[in-house]
C-alpha cells in the first residue's frame, strides 16, 4: 500500500488560518485526510521533504511521523501529525495534535526542520494530554500535596494577547508549574480569585469540582479549567480546554459563570475518554513508498 498525497500547488485563502494555504489530501489505506497547509513556518518544499523521508524513518527507527500542519515561533509550537509505531509485523497509526502557547518552554529549542522533527516523536501511549504544555493526562495528589496547589496572579499589568486583554497567572502544584495568559474580558480578576477559593472549598462536600483558568464568552466561547476528582483519598487533577465544537458538545450555548461552572463537570471516566487517541492498525508491508501527485485546482472531497 502506498501513501498517496495529492497537493494543490496553487494557494487559496483559508479562513481558519487567515492566510493563503495549499490544499492537500492524504490517503493512508482507508484514511482520507483533507488539510489546508499553512506555509508560514515551513515551505511547501519542506513539508514534501518530510513526507518523502518518513517511511525510511519508520523502517530504520521503528517510529515515524507525517506532519500535516506546523507552526513555530519564539513562543508557540503547533503540530498536527500522524504518528507511526512499528510493533512486530504491525504498524499503529495515531492522530495527534499538540499546541503550546507558553512563553518559556521553547525559548532555547532549536528551530524544528524536516531533518530533526523526528526527535519530537513521543513514546507510544493510548492517552494524550490535550492542554498545550501538559505532558501527562492527570496528576494524583495526596491531601497534603493538594493543599500546596496554587493559582495566583503574577502581575496585574494588562497586556493584549490575540484579541483579549489578559493578566498573567501561575498554576503550580507537586512537580508542575505553568504560566498562563488569563483573559479579563468576561471575568474580572476578582471573579477568578473567588471561583478558585469556592472550587477548592467545594471538595469538602462534593466528589468533584473545577478551577477556572481562562474563560471567554460569545461570540467565540472558550473555557480552560482544572477538573478535580476525589478518588481513594487522593485528588485527581486534569487539565481541560474547550473551544469550538468541543465547547458546544459539553457546554452547549451556555456561557461559563461563577454560578453554573460546576454544572458541566462530567464523570472522571467519561472525561478520561477524551484523551484517547484515534488509532488504526496496519500490516508493516502496507508501507512501501510515498506517492505525491501535484494538481492546480481545488480538490473535491
Q: Largest beta sheet, briefly?
A: 4 strands, mixed
Overall outline: globular
Quickly count the helices.
5
Estimate percent helicity.
10-25%
Q: In words, what does this structure look like?
A:
The chain is an alpha+beta fold and 301 residues long. 17% of the residues lie in helices and 45% in strands. The protein folds into 2 domains: 3-126 and 278-295, Secreted effector protein pipB2 fold, CATH 3.30.2450.20; 138-273, Secreted effector protein pipB2 fold (2-Layer Sandwich), CATH 3.30.2450.20. It has 5 helices and 15 strands. The strands form 4 sheets. It has a 4-stranded mixed β-sheet, covered by helices on one side. A hairpin with a 2-residue loop joins β2 and β3 (31-37). The radius of gyration is 21 Å and the shape is globular. Mean pLDDT is 86; it is low at 102-106.
Short description:
The protein is α+β, with helices and mostly antiparallel strands and 301 residues long.
Quick tags:
single chain, globular, four-stranded antiparallel sheet, 5 helices, Secreted effector protein pipB2 fold, 301 residues, four-stranded mixed sheet
What's the structural blueprint in terms of helices and strands?
Blueprint: E1 3-14, E2 19-28, E3 31-37, H1 44-61, E4 63-72, E5 77-87, E6 90-100, E7 138-141, H2 143-147, E8 150-161, E9 164-173, E10 176-183, H3 189-202, E11 208-216, E12 222-231, E13 234-243, H4 244-251, H5 268-273, E14 278-283, E15 290-295
Parallel strand pairs: 1-15
Antiparallel strand pairs: 1-2, 2-3, 4-5, 5-6, 6-14, 7-13, 8-9, 9-10, 11-12, 12-13
